[in-house]
Amino acid sequence: MKKEIAKIVGLITVAPIMAFGMLTLLYFTGNDNFSNLGHYLLAIIYLTVLPILAYPLQKILPKFKDEGRAGQRKLAFIMVVFGYTLGIISAFILKAPAQYLLIYLAYFLSGIILALINKLSKTKASGHACGVVGPIVMCIYLLGGYAWFFILLMPIVFWSRLTMGRHTLKELLLGSAVSVFCTLLSIAWV
């Protein structure tokens, strides 16, 4: 039963679902920077739909299908960077509010740095932890106040990933640190 609950927690806290939750929360807060339906829907496509497509695509693309979970992880990183890059480009072209560029940039940098860490080291920094912590930090920055409540998700997600044996505590902390660093870097830049 414990593993089943951990699996459910893992499924509902994957990075694209967390991005969807963050974007939806920001859209419905009444903040003018997030009130444009077009920018909201594009952000959903770039940060949620494209990354989620990695999972069904992995089952039909031979190169990734034959690699199992490792192939799924590789394709997910490719789709993530592709979606985040399109987000940055569209934010410039469509003159989106700076807050959208901030979000796209934080996600883009996180994806690139995670990919580099995972490629160049033997450590498997947790993309899952990164995908949970990033939206939390972003919501705290953009909304303040009640957004601090979302920090309570972190121990639940850590428990889930540890229970399922997907990551070590070190990998979870490293993924979280990448997310915090990239979000703060993006805030400083934008």
Report what the structure shows.
The chain has 190 residues and is mostly helical. It has one domain. It has helices at residues 2-12, 15-27, 37-60, 62-65, 68-93, 98-120, 127-143, 153-163, 169-189. It starts with a helix and ends with a helix.
Main features:
190 residues; mainly alpha; 9 helices; globular
Separation of termini? Answer: 45 Å
Helix content: over 70%
Instruction: Provide the low-confidence segments as ranges.
Output: none
Structural category: mainly alpha
Q: Shape, please?
A: globular
Strand content: under 5%
Radius of gyration: 16 Å
Largest sheet: none
Question: What layout of secondary structure does this protein have?
Answer:
Blueprint lengths: L1 H11 L2 H13 L9 H24 L1 H4 L2 H26 L4 H23 L6 H17 L9 H11 L5 H21 L1
Helix pairs in contact: 1-8, 2-3, 2-7, 3-5, 5-6, 6-7, 6-9, 7-8, 7-9
In summary, what is this structure?
With 190 residues, the chain is mainly α. The protein has helices at 2-12, 15-27, 37-60, 62-65, 68-93, 98-120, 127-143, 153-163, 169-189. It is globular, with a radius of gyration of 16 Å.
